[in-house]
Amino acid sequence: MAIGVHRKVLVVEDDDGLREAIEVLLDAAGIQTTSYASAEALLDGHAFEDAMCIISDIKLPAMSGIELLTELRARGNAPPVIVITAHDAPGVRAAAVRHGAAAYLAKPFLGTALLAAISSVTHPAGLQCSAQRAPHVSLPTLVLAREHGSCSGNQSVS
Q: Would the CA dihedral through 85, 88, 91, 96 be positive or negative?
């Protein structure tokens, strides 16, 4: 499935390096992104209405990712939300699902896991995200690395 010009993935992550790493990964896979450092910035922009999905950290400085899920649900017509967190615990996962998360990834995660999550929440048949479309990135070994602010093999996010 090709992604339309007017459909993009929105990223909500307060860590600049990780936010940029996700942008690089999605760009390499041919996916347009718009990023925000906070949930409030996303909500203020009303950009979520034309998004194919949202990727949001759970632990954000003011409004949390769980609170963002609740607000998006209250506003209605929100795209699916993939939550990511370095603070994985059964209670956190259950809260994310209870509040409407379409997918959940614990950090560190492989870039391919994020691409698979996007594919699963946006189109059952899947997005075409492959190394052929992004030959300069080795997607099977890609791990998002916050400490280096980039994507590279076998570095993890804490």
A: positive
